[in-house]
Amino acid sequence: MIVEQVVKEILSELRETFKGAEPVLALYWRERNGLKVLTDRGEKWIPLEEAGAEGWVLKLMASVLVSDWEKEKESLPVNRSIQGIPGSWMATPLMGREEPLGVLSVSSPKPGAFDEQHLQLLEQFASNLSLNLENALLNAGLQKQKRGLELIRKINLQMASAPDLQALAQAALVGLAKLFEADEVWVELTEQDLLGERSEKAKYAKEFLSQAIEKGTAVIAEELEPDFPFRSILSLPLKRGFKTLGAMAIAFHAPHFFDEVELFLAETLAEQIALAIETFKFMEEKGQRVWLLSILNELYSTISRTLNPDELGESAGGLLAKVFPSKSGAIFFTSKGETKMVARWGGKLDLPLETIEAHLKSPGPFEITGPEGRPTLVAPIALNDKAMGFIVLQDTDLSQEETLLLNSVAGILAEALQKIQIHQEMENRLAEMATIYAISQQIMSSLELPVVLETIVEVLKHVMDCRAACIFLLNEETGMLEIKASSGITSHWRTQAKLRVGEGISGKAVALGRPIYVPDSLLEPDFIFFDRSVRSILVVPLKVKGKVIGTLSVDHTIPNAFTPDDERFLSIIAAQAAIAIENAALYERLKERAVALEKAYEEISELSRFKSELLQNVSHELRSPLTFVKGYVELMREGYMGSLTPEQAEALEVVSEKADLMTRLVEDMIALQRIEIEKLKLEPVSLEEIARFAVRSASLMARNAGIEFKLEIPPNLPPVMGDKNRLVQVFDNLINNAIKFSPNGGTITIRLKDIGEYVQAEVEDTGIGIPEDKLDKIFERFYQVDSSSKRKFGGMGLGLAIVKSIVEAHGGKIWVKSQLGKGSTFYFVIPKA
What we know:
elongated, 29 strands, Beta-Lactamase
């Protein structure tokens, strides 16, 4: 899977998971000490010191959650993230097998958008992404390297067939442009004019070429000032041994940051160009170019047909046997620290390998004296200072032409071996990825912890062909490591085997937090045997969020059973296993929580039902007596039941007011019940008509309070989808509130606005205002801003609760802004029809 595809998929998944949030993937670039930032809008490079919060997380190597950036900014060591200043933000590092890969972050413009559960989910994303990303980056690099080496092989053929030095340099120039897709390329030979575009740009390029020739090392500039004719350039010397033959340069019009693969390919091509120049010059002097070209073309033809190092060695050996029929010779290839003979011709060879290997970093062929004084010529097979083998000829008395040929063959073999190694590495990596993917699918196929654990060990035992596989998990209560799953271990040990942290190989792996390999248990002091047949064991820790929770181990009945590749493979599986274990444990916790929540919900539902029935009964039981009380009080006040003294009339007026208050309370309680139970009758309605109706209804009360109404309503306001009667109730309650809390008169302004998907309404007064610490509570049922026994304004605190319930039932939202002593403004929005 290529890097671009992995990035695209993860960004899409993150955006789908965290609605309304913006994800960022920042890859760590160690060579440049910076981050390569990838978003849907493209990519950019940022130095680590300028990477803000993401750079901080990379240095910290720990997850960070900032729920409210504005409130927490004083405690943060940075003032922004890569995306700017967010409302809320979270990030987690991406860990590779050996070093950090980068940072995964998500930002939202809204404060409080993320909590610990969101962060835990992001960490799960990061764990899964790290494996896929590391493999994708590695494969992308290998593929790029393989394509580059194949192109270099073709460039070599072009240079080898060039009729003169100018044509050779021109072939190198064309190859440079193709290999790097560069905007400008130049080649300068010490005895030739500069090749490439001859313009003002060439003057600047010549400075870098001269520096490379003078210093004998690469010269890199990746972000030149805008007034340069190019923004980035790489210049390399063309060297053979200690002799510099010229320099080459590639340049880009935009800033370009050369990665490891590009630098490797550039160095390889520089070596090949220098070798081609040296060979051409020498063979031209001796008149041997046709002979050399035929031999090299035959070797290149062989290289193009095989990806097997043994076949490559045999073919090259057969070719050299024809060139040097009277000499004894051999070809050796070195791989993974082992040197192997792949071809041999002529008589008996006496080879002092230790002496040969000590000189393998020599820049060219060298002579040593073999046993019995036999002269031996060694041509190192090396690429970019990496020893890959050598060619040996004994009883030699070679001409300069033959020595140069041997050196050319060694260079071609080095290039071919590099190509084969890359191909093999890609094949191995793809096979490993397929195996890991298959294992991961099996591991992730269940969320039941026992099933997950047993699946891991069964699959591992089969894939690694070992005696046994085992999982120890740390019991946090006892501090002991206990076997929770195993395959190949007797049932007795599954229940009895327990280790302290630091005890046994698994205990040591937990204590140290790193893999431990014992190649031979008989040579390990104090080795704890659960089974005497175990000769070698490999243990890797299981980690969740940097914390070791146990170990994953495999063992075998033979010594030296496992390799570094096995350790790396088991570490990858351990990372996947730890995620699966954590997911299963989380699933168990969620199941327990779901059961508890279901029980709590049933209890709350029962209480809510009792409450509703109680309120309904109380409301209906109070309504009838209040109606009678109110009726008789009015009859008495109007004199139908006899004349009243002034004191009696005043007392009855108080009774009438209290009865009205109780009636409104009962009506509010019934209204709340209806909102919860009854469905809204939604239809397209005019919020303007509703607002004007509410103002007319409250005009008498407003005049008595010395208040004027002001309406600010734009023409052609679109209708909303609403229940007309309920929306009238919203305006009534807000306007009544505004009148009640404006004891000194003033103005109440009603505004309506079209704000996209909603129509927004505002009710603004010039009253007493609300303290800031009370604003988030005023929509709660029965809440009073002034709850003291001496409070000035009456009411039961249900009006705003009713308003909130109605607005939210419409799919809208309500909020308030207020200044003490200056008034309040209530805002609410209702979706358009």
